[in-house]
Design brief:
two-stranded antiparallel sheet
């Protein structure tokens, strides 16, 4: 009987209450909505999706600044080469004094969509909206916890050479989207794999 009484109370509240439904914060399977801060490249949470069962959703109490892009989208899983080759996706890098900028991630454009044009002198948000530009942030990538990157500059997008065209081991290993192929000599193999006395770089793929 207690269960029945509770159910009736909930139904009455749903059908008669003029109040909008609350956000499903903490509900199983519902994640917070995250948007990317163009000035740092990091994602920030702005609450959870709203359950519309009982009525209209209220406005977000903490709304993201205008035109911040969503952190989850079709671009986020792409590697560097695929990101540069995919229309509507924006490649981001972090500076590393020891080598060329390190690929940080592939990001979706703001909700207004991707645009093209000159990359010179663009601010962080405008740069992120260009799928023919790349964003450079402070780095390196492996900074200690608590480090917050900051936007440095906007650069024209430069397409990468195909992995198969790289002829040296150094050039191949420098690309996290390429795999070095070796020819082994004096090898011993078992169920777990092979161990070779010498390995010579053969190709890149």
């Amino acid at each position: 009987m207690k269960r029945l009484a509770l159910l009736i109370t909930l139904l009455v509240g749903c059908t008669n209450s003029p109040q909008p439904c609350e956000y499903a914060t903490g509900a199983p399977g519902i994640a917070d909505i995250e948007y990317r801060d163009p000035s740092t490249g990091q994602c920030e949470s702005f609450g959870s999706p709203c359950d519309t069962t009982c009525g209209p959703c209220p406005g977000l109490e903490n709304t993201p600044p205008s035109n911040w892009p969503a952190c989850v989208g079709m671009c986020e899983s792409l590697g560097e080469s695929a990101c540069l080759a995919t229309a509507g996706c924006h490649a981001a890098y972090q500076a590393d004094s020891a080598q060329k900028p390190v690929f940080w991630g592939c990001w979706d454009p703001p909700s207004t969509g991707a645009i093209e044009g000159s990359c010179t002198g663009l601010d962080s948000l405008t740069c992120l909206a260009h799928d023919d530009c790349t964003s450079l942030y402070t780095g390196p990538v492996n900074e200690p916890p608590g480090f917050v990157p900051s936007f440095e500059s906007c650069q024209p997008e430069v397409a990468q050479a195909a992995c198969a065209t790289l002829t040296t081991e150094t050039a191949c290993l420098a690309r996290n989207d390429c795999d070095a192929v070796y020819t082994g000599m004096d090898c011993t193999c078992d169920d777990s794999g092979c161990t070779c006395a010498t390995e010579t770089f053969s190709s890149c793929k």
